[in-house]
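Quarterly update from the structural biology core.
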Amino acid sequence: MLTPILSAAGLAAAATGGYAYAAMWPASQIFGRTVVAGTNPNEFALTYDDGPNDPETGLLLELLAEHTVHATFFVIGSFVQQRPEIVRAIAAAGHTIGNHTMTHPKLLYCSPQRVHDELAGCNAAIEDAIGAPVRLMRCPHGMRRPDVLRTACSLGLTPVQWNITAHDWNPIGTQEIVANVERGIARNRGRGRGSNILLHDGGQAGVGQNRRATVEATRLLLQKHAGTARFVMPQDWI
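Predicted structure, tokenized:
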């Protein structure tokens, strides 16, 4: 008599685990297609979440210009409204600006109306700042449901995830950030994949977060891979 009970419990656990994987694993395609990376192991995309943020976003722009590298900045709409001049500087330098929602909620737990308002509001904030449409978005924490991805599509947005997490939202220091990225690059190369690197130029708590370690880690990564990697943007993989 225990077997059916155990089997039901096992099935429930498997279903719960499967849903969590589909909703929260960055590279999962179960709930809908997202851009992760291409098949050239020497292609890297530098992506920065949670800005705009000063002074770190500006420091990154200077550093990227020195190396003639373009990156992608997934910005929070409420911060865009506070620092539109930084967003205009990102666009003027030729970088891609993506939608990272208005207030950085976990969209997995938001109502469909809230999901729409978060994405549409961020689109409007960016477009007001730079006068151009937004084409990419990234779900905060990577969390999504099928309807979240459908809403993004209805707003003209392509969802972008990642396959390397630098963990730089924690105060771990420059060297550990670099080590996390390098391990991810080695893993992706072993799988014949490019590297879509998740970094942070800001923080969801507000403008003014200290991301100097991320700036320095970016400097070291650019110096190390300048002659061997091709730095791309996620839209190159669409």
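The chain has one domain: 33-237.
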